[in-house]
Amino acid sequence: MTKPCSCLICGQARRHLVPATLVRTSVAELIRSDHPDWTDEAYICLDDLNMYRSQFVAKVLAEERGELTAAEAEVVRALKEHELISENTNTEIASATTIGDRLSDRLASFGGSWSFLIMFGTIMTVWILFNSIHVMQQPVDPFPFILLNLILSCLAAVQAPVIMMSQNRQETKDRMRAEHDYQVNLKAELEIRQLHSKLDMLLTHQWQRLLEIQQIQTDLMQQIVGHRNSNDSKPGTRSQ
To answer: Domain containing 100: what range?
Structure first.
């Protein structure tokens, strides 16, 4: 007589034994981690097999919850390892500003304000009135106010380069800000692509795990149906 087979896990010779070749690979790996002597010739009882199936499902669910946290940690780590590009460009611009640059900015800012227009209009009005009503016997600048025209010409000749210098500095500022915005946008685009790739890998891995769980559930349902059919086929189980 042949020696009756027994369960490798509990060591008992039970009626319902499943050969190792019918156990799914994912569950077999979990069994082999606890029992290194698990081979293709071994057998396992349904109680122990269902126990390992439950352990595998619980392990998969725990890993899925942990993988979400791991993915978030990976993104944070990747962001920390790369040097931050965002910076205050105004500080860099201010550090490279000379005294002449600051003076030209202030003159251009004052020359384009209402204070300058009001003061300039007031001075011109007083100048014209002072030289028109003959307060003095000999006016400083009689009509047609040649001295006033000379002063205005000199003011325009000085104001134009000052405004141009200020505009050149503003153009430099805008160019630096544009380059900085480009670098920030490029880094953001690369980070978004990296996040998309990680999400795609995570979703693919989750689908594979979900299919494994569904396959185990299908095996359990088939065993339940087979066990019920075997009980119904026994004599005396039907109602008289």
So the answer is: 89-199
